[in-house]
Amino acid sequence: MKLSVICGSRRLCSLPALRNILDRLFIESLTWYPKDHIGMSEAIDGLERCLDYSQYTLCLPDADDFDTHWLHYILGYQRGRTDRLSFWVLQDNERIIPNWASRFIILTGHIDVVSNHFAGLEGLWSEDMNAKLARKVISERHIEISARSFVEAVRSGDRFFTGLFLDAGFSPSLRDSAGVPILNQAVRLGYHQLVGPLLDAGADIDSEAEDRGTTPLMDAAASGHTELILRLVDMNAELEHMSRDGQTAVILAVGNGREDAAAALIQAGANVEIKDKLGMSARKYADLYKLSRILEMIESTG
Length: 302
Known about the structure:
Layout: E1 2-7, H1 15-24, E2 28-32, H2 40-52, E3 57-60, H3 69-78, E4 85-89, E5 105-108, H4 111-140, H5 147-155, H6 159-167, H7 182-188, H8 192-200, H9 216-223, H10 226-234, H11 249-255, H12 259-267, H13 282-288, H14 292-301
Parallel strand pairs: 1-2, 1-3, 3-4, 4-5
């Protein structure tokens, strides 16, 4: 990250401490301050070079600097980008901050306030740079940067491009045209390599698909993806969510003959007595389909 630093002549003594903070955060900086011995044209040229150095600007004004030509020049140069311009004001000068400055970020007091602010900003800046890089790579592969392309990357099980779309800022809770969250899509297709990145990026572990009314755990149960069931259970996925037909994950597992999946859910504490809209429970389905292993497990777990 780079930072433009504009310093009032009376605040030059603050620069060493600021440089130490910026060095610690690996933030490069270029500093400008007014000099009495240079003309206006040369001063403006230097000020513009400093402002062009970075999208982010930190001003260190003294009490008398808020009315100076150079500070108002900076305001015009920023063109209203209030999130990119911040002021570090000493505690003694807090009371003289003009009302118009309240639109901008005001850092008041000790250098630690500045350190905390730019530590957080550096993280956001890194995310922004990663997003730009990811979009560049996607574009270079002649792939449309769109939600539809993201969905296709998930459907094809492409770990690389799924990661790029996430880095580019696309939501991990995105749904396809049928209202199915991409996490549910990955689970239904058994793409273990995609489930982790989507969950780590913030996908809703209990997201309900509009086509079936099922959650990722229920989709894993219906498809018999036992390893995914164990992973989702470990991450506290809801065990008793019901589909439109009143079926839970364990009912879907038993009803589809997925014995390993059913066993994993029962061991996790799934309720085998909940009835669906047909009045059938997981226990009753196991009895109907004569799944002796499941019935024995149900009895042994009480």
